[in-house]
Specification:
The protein has three helices and six strands, in the order ααββαββββ. It is α+β, with helices and mostly antiparallel strands. It is globular, with a radius of gyration of 14 Å. The chain starts with a helix and ends in a 6-residue tail after the last strand. The mean pLDDT is 91. InterPro entries: NTF2-like_dom_sf, SnoaL-like. Residues 2-106 form the SnoaL-like domain.
């Protein structure tokens, strides 16, 4: 949340495995590794202010080194030159793998909610 809101691409990508995958609301196909970084770079570069809030988060642990988190996100971004924050409401799942004591994103899947808030 802090890396996203600060627009810090390197910190955001430090949360991912190098070969992580992502499927989101703006592209029809899975992104892999460097493509995930490119996507976040475009998101962060196109905005000046960002907020994200998580709701109804549930995390399940498997085999002490894999977790699956599900929930909802409220993402707010401006579209310069307008200072107004635009809300997007999303359902998400994140699979993380424990590597060297850190929980890193292996896979993230987000889907925009069709009619607003959960």
């Amino acid at each position: 949340m802090q890396a996203y809101e600060a627009g810090n691409l390197d910190s955001l990508m430090a949360l991912h495995l190098p070969d992580s995958t992502f499927a989101g609301t703006l592209q029809p196909f899975w992104l892999h590794g460097p493509e995930v970084r490119d996507l976040w770079n475009r998101y962060l570069g196109g905005t000046q202010r960002r907020l994200v809030r998580f709701r109804d988060v549930e995390t399940r642990l498997y085999a002490d080194n894999v977790s699956v988190e599900t929930g909802y996100m409220e993402m707010y971004m401006d579209r310069p030159p307008s200072p107004e924050l635009i809300a997007t409401f999303i359902r998400y799942s994140i699979t993380r793998v424990r590597r060297n004591g850190d929980w890193l994103i292996a896979n993230m899947n987000v889907a925009r909610l069709p009619d607003g808030r959960p």
